[in-house]
């Protein structure tokens, strides 16, 4: 009988409580790109509900090294010799008991590490509302992580066997080329991934779908169209958007670098509605824009606006639109000022 993959089963899987058959079923299910969004959403939800699982890998490594040093010292006591050639001796009962407890502790540490594998296996970078972060990956590739976003990279082996990262939110990448032409893959929870060799591009995985803008080089976009996996080769200047149903639209941009202008605290809009801009405020700053009159949401804005904060951006947009606003906590009221 085929196992049904439910949120409860995934939670047991992340916590290490799934049976061998359930683990096999989930592993097979998770290989299908069509299931990635549900998998990563369940993982993020489980992690947020497990504050006790927040780990300090560096401290854990130091504790493990200390245990190993203790283990070696016990071994030296048992051998009773400093010779480099191992000497097999029988341990006394007390020494055997001490060795057993040390070995058992090592096994427990390994078991605990396996159970929390989804957490410690990846190094995570996360930004708050209104914050950006510049990251240099082990292979020399550069990432600028936009506000309210998260990037995970493998803690071990990145750049050796593979170069794969997981992005939630928005980031710009400048990927270095390797002598072995090793691909660089950006996975997302939005039913698509981006495969590159060496290039510059921006990926957005916000809730309204997905968006990839290519500035330099070439990338291959892999996405799920219903139950069918498809690929699309992008060239510089391409903008590809994907909705939640997997529908793809591609268009050419005269200035693809405008998509990543936020790196320089600049926002570029071309006939962008205030409704669309309100989504940016929600995603990047956690603010909700409310319009006194529904027609205001359809007003459009064009231009390049420098802003290093939500307040600065709101001020220049209101001035450009001849509108006014009031703010109460995280709610912004937009209205026409009286003459």
From TrEMBL:
User: Which species is this UniProt entry from?
Assistant: Rudanella paleaurantiibacter
Protein name stated in the entry: DUF4974 domain-containing protein
Which PANTHER family does UniProt cross-reference here? PERIPLASMIC SIGNAL SENSOR AND SIGMA FACTOR ACTIVATOR FECR-RELATED (PTHR30273), PROTEIN FECR (PTHR30273:SF2)
Could you tell me which residue ranges the Protein FecR C-terminal domain spans? 266-334
**Which segments constitute the FecR protein domain?**
125-220
Which segments cross the bilayer?
99-116
Q: Which UniProt keywords apply?
A: Membrane, Transmembrane, Transmembrane helix
- Transmembrane as a keyword of this entry, yes or no, is yes
Print the organism lineage: Bacteria, Pseudomonadati, Bacteroidota, Cytophagia, Cytophagales
The protein's matches in InterPro entries, at most eight in alphabetical order, are given as: FecR (IPR006860), FecR_C (IPR032508), Ferrdict_sens_TM (IPR012373)
GO-annotated molecular function: sigma factor antagonist activity
């Amino acid at each position: 009988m085929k196992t049904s993959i439910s949120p409860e089963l995934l939670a047991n899987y992340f916590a290490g409580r799934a049976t061998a058959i359930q683990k096999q079923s989930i592993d097979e299910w998770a290989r299908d790109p069509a299931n990635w969004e549900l998998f990563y959403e369940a993982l993020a939800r489980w992690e947020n509900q497990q504050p006790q699982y927040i780990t300090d890998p560096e401290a854990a490594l130091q504790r493990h090294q200390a245990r190993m040093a203790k283990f070696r010292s016990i071994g030296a006591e048992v051998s009773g010799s400093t010779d480099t050639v191992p000497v097999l001796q029988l341990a006394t009962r007390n020494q055997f008991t001490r060795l057993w407890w040390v070995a058992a502790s090592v096994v427990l540490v390994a078991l605990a590490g396996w159970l929390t594998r989804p957490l410690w296996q990846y190094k995570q970078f996360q930004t708050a509302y209104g914050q950006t972060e510049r990251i240099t990956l082990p292979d020399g590739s550069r990432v600028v992580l936009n506000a309210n976003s998260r990037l995970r990279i493998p803690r071990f082996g990145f750049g050796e066997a593979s170069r794969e990262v997981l992005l939630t939110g928005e980031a710009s990448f400048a990927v270095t080329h390797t002598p072995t032409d090793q691909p660089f893959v950006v996975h997302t929870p939005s039913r698509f991934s981006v495969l590159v060799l060496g290039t510059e591009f921006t990926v957005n995985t916000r809730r309204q779908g997905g968006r990839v803008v290519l500035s330099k080089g070439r990338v291959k976009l892999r996405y799920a169209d219903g139950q069918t996996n498809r690929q699309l080769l992008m060239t510089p200047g391409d903008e590809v958007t994907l909705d939640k149903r997997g529908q793809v639209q591609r268009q050419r941009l005269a200035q693809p670098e405008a998509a990543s202008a936020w790196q320089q605290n600049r926002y570029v809009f071309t006939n962008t509605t205030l409704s669309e801009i309100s989504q940016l405020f929600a995603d990047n700053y956690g603010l909700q824009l409310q319009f006194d009159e529904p027609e205001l949401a359809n007003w459009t804005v064009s231009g390049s606006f420098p802003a290093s904060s939500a307040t600065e951006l709101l001020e220049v947009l209101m001035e450009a639109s001849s509108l006014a606003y009031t703010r109460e906590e995280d709610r912004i009221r937009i209205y026409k000022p009286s003459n």
